[in-house]
Design a protein that fits this description.
- By secondary structure, this protein is an all-alpha fold.
- 51% of the residues lie in helices and 0% in strands.
- It has 8 helices and no strands.
- The longest helix is centred in the middle third of the chain and has 19 residues, at 68-86.
- The N and C termini lie far apart (87 Å).
Amino acid sequence: MADYTREHREAVADLEICVDKREFDRQKLDSVYVSIFALEKFCTDHYLPKPAFWFPGEGGAIVVPPRREQIDKQVCQGIARTLWDQDPTFTIKALTQHPAILRNGNGGLYSSKTLHAWLSEVDPRSIEDNTGRPRKPSQG
């Protein structure tokens, strides 16, 4: 381990000069081997763009993982779509209180207002069917 650490320190010594001052020691750079797989993992782990000259066609875009809220929103919306497929008469309010949304979709972590906004984005009912207070059945 000590040899590896020493070799690593020697390999990276003065590499900051290459980056900061744009001064390149050709002999130094020729003595350092960087695996393309290690570089790709490093860039991914640190959310850095991949160098375009080693990864052509990928654009070097930074891929940021989704936040917990984004994942929960997608899961809640997926559960709501499934429940609406099974019973199209569900209201958004009823779904915001549904155990599947609250437990499996982590909906219990969010306000009913937030859940309402998320579910209204995927509500398959027509505008006439899902606006306002539900109508009372007509007696006749």
